[in-house]
Amino acid sequence: MAKKKKKVPGLNGSSMADISFTLLIFFLITTSMDTDMGLARRLPKPPEPDQEDATMDIKARNILYVMINAAGQLWIKDEMSSGWGDIGELRTRVKEFIKNDQNLSKLPEKHVKNIDLLGQCFVTDKHVISVQTDRGTPYNIYFQVQNELVAAYNELRNELAKQKFGREFQYLKDEEKDAVRQYYPQNISEAEPKKYGGD
Q1: Are 108 and 100 a contacting pair, CB within 8 Å?
Q2: How far is CA 115 from CA 22, 27, 138, in A?
Q3: Per-residue pLDDT tens for 66-108?
């Protein structure tokens, strides 16, 4: 007489859905997602329908040209000097240009501006940093240049915030931040300003 084979009980799969769901939640929570990189820029308001095309007239002394060619080489030009430079010196050059400590006639013009919380200030808020690129400009060089420009503004704002309010810019109240931004507005343009002669 042959022995009967024992039946192996089947696995209970009813809890598999719960386990899968729990693992899915775990991996969603613990996995870091890549975030898109971008540049924080405020676009100008669209023109009114009946507005004529206007070109932006800016005095030559108020413009600092930052040009990047297809080889990723940097050309820095203002009324004081021009020549090939490297990204390491860009931040320093931009800060010197914007501040114009000695009120040189070849650097941005200074004028008196009344700013809330700061009073009457001697500012260069008409300056423009004009970034010009080639179609073949490497993206990594372009982003490094943009980072250096923003870092120059951040350092200037921090210096002013410490001098006037005794704290770094990020710790200021909203109205204090607004005052510092009026003193050092971030004027970065990727459009070619029209240059005309004279100071």
Answers
A1: yes
A2: 57, 51, 40
A3: 999 888 899 998 777 778 778 889 999 999 999 999 999 999 9
CA-to-CA distance for 119 and 159, rounded, in angstroms? 17
Contact present, 107 and 101 (Cβ < 8 Å): no
What residue has token string 């060619």? 69
Q: In degrees rounded to 5, what are phi and psi of residue 93?
A: -65, -40
The burial class, CB within 10 Å (0-12 / 13-18 / 19+), for 177 is middle
Task: For residues 142 and 38, give the distance between their C-alpha atoms in angstroms, rounded to a whole number.
Answer: 12
d(CA 181, CA 177): 6
Residue 160 in this model has a pLDDT that exceeds 80: yes
Do the beta carbons of residue 158 and residue 177 sit within 8 Å? no
Q: How far apart are CA 198 and CA 78, in angstroms?
A: 14
According to DSSP H, which parts of the chain are helical? Answer: 16-30, 87-99, 139-165, 174-183
Give bridge partners of residue 59 from the DSSP assignment: 196
- How far does the chain reach from its first CA to its final CA, in angstroms? 116
Query: Does residue 34 register a pLDDT over 90?
Result: no
